[in-house]
């Protein structure tokens, strides 16, 4: 089961102004709120066969809380993927992203739609997410450097870290990650 905290936030921010504001400015949502959200999500039946956390944990504090909650359930984290992409390359990739309300995702140069700014699947107009705008991306990335990067050390210590060169092609990155994931249906 793919659990994306980004998707969860985008869902709640429609009703929660505080979270909406934080996301719009590129700041991290406070640890306590994220941790509770993930905690609730992990009680659902659909994660019993395994899950992949995407976008969480983002701070050492969140990682410690995650360890504590998994320990209670007797679950062990198998692997942690660190997809390494240089700062400027990350800016280029995020700023060029365009999304459709149907869930499809494109990139202006790396994965352009057939017709400019139109979704291939449903023909709706594509948009740039607000937190994908360049100045906000730069803020997001400096928050990442300060608060998220220390996690590399944290998971290296626990022996679960798998480093992946994010400058490789999409299919190479996918293949590398797939080696560690068993799909259970
Ligand atoms: Zn679409």
Strand ordering within the main sheet = 1-2
Tell me roughly what share of residues is in helical segments: 40-55%
Under the CATH scheme, which class of the domain at 1-75?
Answer: Alpha Beta
Instruction: Summarize the biggest pleated sheet.
Output: 2 strands, parallel
What does this structure look like?
- By secondary structure, the chain is of the alpha/beta class.
- α3 runs parallel beside α4 and α5 (87-95) packs across α6.
- The chain is built from eight helices and six strands.
- A hairpin with a 5-residue loop joins β4 and β5.
- It has a domain at 1-75: Rossmann fold (3-Layer(aba) Sandwich).
- The chain has a two-stranded parallel sheet.
- The chain has helices at 5-12, 17-25, 31-41, 60-73, 87-95, 134-148, 150-158, 170-178; strands spanning 2-4, 52-54, 80-84, 97-99, 105-107, 161-165.
- The protein is 45% helix and 12% strand.
- The model has no long low-confidence stretch (mean pLDDT 91).
- The protein starts with a strand and ends in a 7-residue tail after the last helix.
Quick recap of the structure?
The protein is α/β, with parallel strands linked by helices. Helices cover 45% and strands 12% of the residues. A two-stranded parallel sheet has the order 1-2. It has a two-stranded parallel sheet with strand order 3-6.
Topology of this protein?
Elements (H helix, E strand, L loop, with lengths): L1 E3 H8 L4 H9 L5 H11 L10 E3 L5 H14 L6 E5 L2 H9 L1 E3 L5 E3 L26 H15 L1 H9 L2 E5 L4 H9 L7
Helix pairs in contact: 3-4, 5-6
Bound molecules: zinc ion.
